[in-house]
Design a protein that fits this description.
Layout: H1 8-15, E1 22-28, H2 39-56, H3 62-78, E2 87-92, E3 97-102, E4 109-113, H4 119-128, E5 131-136, E6 140-147, E7 150-153, E8 161-162, H5 170-176, H6 186-205, E9 210-213, H7 216-225, E10 232-236, H8 246-277, E11 281-283, H9 285-293, E12 297-303, E13 310-313, E14 316-319, E15 332-333, H10 336-346, E16 350-354, E17 365-369
Parallel strand pairs: 5-9, 9-10, 12-16
Antiparallel strand pairs: 1-2, 1-4, 2-3, 5-6, 6-7, 6-8, 11-17, 12-17, 13-14, 13-15
Helix pairs in contact: 2-3, 4-10, 6-7, 9-10
Length: 371
């Protein structure tokens, strides 16, 4: 699965307590040859490590270990190296397995616990800056999931929708004296009311910024008959059909997406500047980590590609260089930035990713404090 499949409901399911052991395997992967040639070897090595850990763990019965190993083997057989992104996450227990391909690197790790490790999934989704795109006309409505990498048509929440087709009625046209406009007919209004209802359901289940693409009459009618369009952050007034491709839509949306990203970045800079002048600012990994743990952070900003290995000492973080302690040290966190992002989101904190080097004077990560 991809990160845009990580809904709040699915995340709750992944985090629930399970019979021990729930196995989480993470590793970095490569998108292209020749670097991706090493991925299969690294995966085999991690599977061997997982099997050894299951066998050596006194809390794992022979039957439970064999069941988890069987699920892990099934997952490995299903991994498609051609779809590799920047990390692979496999989750397995005695009854199921899940495969996640992430556009964000993750450390090489095998974890046995009573729940799945989710921090890499959560951080990857937060960094993906997901959005929805609705392609609309009086005859069709198609929903797309968008990321920085492109658009993908979604079949969820009742989408795609096609308006019921009715044969022309000459007697009706004779009675009203003319053929009604496409967007003035009651059929079109009813169809767009249905679109609005379905779209509100999608946005409630998985809130994201919304972009609309369609002719002005279609967008105006959606505004008139429903509520969902009022939340759109951008629009492209371009006619579309049910066969309009994602690349075509993305080209039309280009200016609106660029403007949205500029507005978002400017708003974040303004909030950080205000926090600094008002002494409601934390900068650097250790300060922000403490603010998040204490529930004082309202907004956490992180540079796009910031990664750091750190050691936890007396509740504080100390950066660890490449020659530091190995990952087997229980106090060393290879993915501490991902852990910080997950903790911030769990505490109801807003998380935003900003351009590399934009927080160079503040240790690559900063926070606006609530108090």
């Amino acid at each position: 699965m991809d990160t845009d499949a990580l809904t709040p409901g699915l995340l709750r399911e992944l985090r629930r307590t399970r019979p021990y052991p729930a196995l989480s395997l993470t590793m970095p992967t490569h998108r292209k040859a020749p670097d991706n040639a090493q991925d299969a070897v690294r995966l085999r090595n991690l599977v061997t490590e997982a099997a050894n850990r299951l066998e050596a763990d006194p809390r794992v019965s022979r039957e439970a270990g064999a069941a988890v190993k069987a699920q892990l083997d099934r997952a490995v057989e299903e991994v498609d190296q051609r779809r590799a992104l920047d990390a692979l996450v496999i989750l397995a227990d005695a009854d199921e397995y899940q495969i996640w391909q992430l556009p964000r690197t993750a450390p090489e790790r095998v974890v046995l616990s009573d729940s799945y490790l989710t921090r890499n999934l959560v951080s990857a989704k937060a960094r993906a800056r997901l959005f929805w795109v609705l392609s609309l006309s009086a005859e069709h409505a198609t929903l797309f999931s968008g990321t920085d990498d492109g658009l993908r048509a979604e079949r969820k929440g009742g989408f795609p929708l096609t308006a019921p087709h009715e044969e022309p009625n000459p007697q009706r046209e004779e009675r009203i004296g003319d053929t009604p406009s496409t967007y003035s007919s009651e059929d079109a209004r009813n169809f767009l009311r249905t679109v609005d209802t379905k779209l509100r359901g999608v946005l409630a289940a998985d809130p994201r910024p919304l972009f609309l693409v369609g002719l002005p009459p279609a967008l105006s009618l959606l505004d008139e008959v429903g509520e969902s369009a009022g939340n759109a952050v951008g629009r492209a007034t371009k006619g579309t059909t049910a066969d309009t491709t994602p690349p075509e839509l993305l080209r039309e949306l280009g200016p609106a997406l660029d403007e949205w990203r500029k507005r978002t970045a400017a708003g974040i800079r303004g909030r950080l500047d205000k926090a600094m002048s008002g002494r409601a600012f934390a900068g650097g990994l250790d300060e922000v980590w403490a603010a998040v743990r204490e529930g004082r952070a309202g907004l956490v900003t992180v540079e796009e590609h910031f990664e750091q290995t750190a050691r936890v000492t007396d509740g504080h973080l100390e950066p660890v260089g490449p020659d530091g302690a190995p990952a087997t040290d229980g106090q060393v966190r290879e993915d501490v930035v991902d852990e910080l992002v997950e903790a911030a989101l769990d505490n109801g904190c807003e998380v935003a990713f900003v351009a590399d080097d934009s927080l160079a004077d503040h240790g690559r990560v900063a926070a606006v404090l609530r108090f």
